[in-house]
Amino acid sequence: MSQGVLPFKYEEEKIGTGMTAMAGLPLYLDLAKVMGLSKSIQKHLKIRERSQGWTDSQVVLSLVLLNLAGGDCVDDLKIMEADEGFGAILRKSEMHGLRRKVRRALDRRWRKEKNRSVPSPSAVFRYLSKFHDSEQEKIREKSDIKAFIPTPNEHLKGFRKINKDMCAGLNKANPEKTATLDMDATLAETMKKTALYCYKGFKSYQPFNVWWHEHGIILHTEFRDGNVPAGFEQLRIFKEALNCLPENVEKVKLRSDTAGYQHDLLKYCEKGENERFGRIEFAIGCTVTKAFKTAVAQVPDSEWQPIYKNEKGIRIKTGSEWAEVCYVPNELCHSKDAPAYRYLAKRQCLEMQPPLPGMEETAQLELPFPTMEIEEKQYKVFGVVTNIQYTHMTGEEVIHWLHERCGKSEEVHAVMKEDLAGGKLPSADFGVNAAWWWIMIIALNLNAMMKNLALAPCMKAKRMKAIRFSVINIPGRVIKRSRSLFLRLSKGHPSYVLLVEARRKIAMLVGAWAPSG
After folding, report:
1. How far is it, in rounded angstroms, from Cα 27 to Cα 498?
2. Does residue 514 register a pLDDT over 90?
């Protein structure tokens, strides 16, 4: 009987064949082994330390691999478990390099013979529940503070330490003495009953992230409710991020949008209050208030300079202009030791088209960006505050440098929520979702490290869709022979050379990496 229109049929194999649909995923097991990810998880997460069954590293690493393979919910573990070939490699990898005593101890964790490769969804949900603190929810109910951030329990704090270990290892294998940190929040829309409404009017969570520009990884993150403003307690988050930086980092720079325009944060950077890094250079978007517009209007037309962009070595005008603005906000007017900052303004003349017939009322709607009128012309206005000296960077250079954060550091938010599992949160419990978010961050950083250290340079800018197509989701067959496993790809497959070369590069990192634990 025909199954469909075209002349082919689906059939099941009568016996197990060792096939896998994820022949490239073991590559990430290689990198995780070299960087000591399992050791770090066992060191900092001790939920399952004295329990039978799955270990902490087995549960967390399974969810990290699930993110990389394209799964976006806990139930997708069933698909991973059904992949016979990958399961064989995963089981073999878990025992590699362990002493006989340790291997036997792992076997004794099971009352019966272990017959699964990854935990069941129910086991994972029980595990994730350990990250939720019900006492914090009681405090939330009694508190009058609307922007409430639950204090993470010790288990949840462990993820920060794991990520810190990963960053330290990466910066030893590929040293960077400067850390340019981009701070920003993102909205993760959800339909959970316990979720709160964000400023855009829908239910969401609003995690706050600190992006390390030079390495292209998330240095630190904090999971938050949707109603918590992006600028709330930014100084505390920044201090926590600084503590996560590896020891061989010598200089820090900061970039942020207008949510980072917090005077306690600016003062902390300018006054050099951090004992380790001292004065921290920053460029942050400033709020375009009425007073700021007044200061911008007082800038003579002769002081406005064009902003250029480089295209193949040729400087081309963008149509925007910049100028230094003599502006002191009210928050600094009454303080004798208030620091002095540079304020810059960027303006772009708007060509207002006459409204179409019947669209006159729509034309009166407020524009989604600050504008002002100067000499009967309407301009789009953008403000910047910085402590970078005139002699180090011109105003145009500061603006270009600040706008660089609008690339990868904001693109990564889409990667978190669409390419990985950050956009589909598994529970109504805050702590469970926070743990799920952190595991996604570990997967994100592991993939970034793979692109930076092992894959070809042309793969560095690729998103997960391309990585899965050419690296991870490749069909193969796992063959057991002479106590070894062989992962066989089809003859002439273009990814074969890529995978072998990546494994060679990972093997070279064994001496360069600083494994945890």
Report:
1. 11
2. no
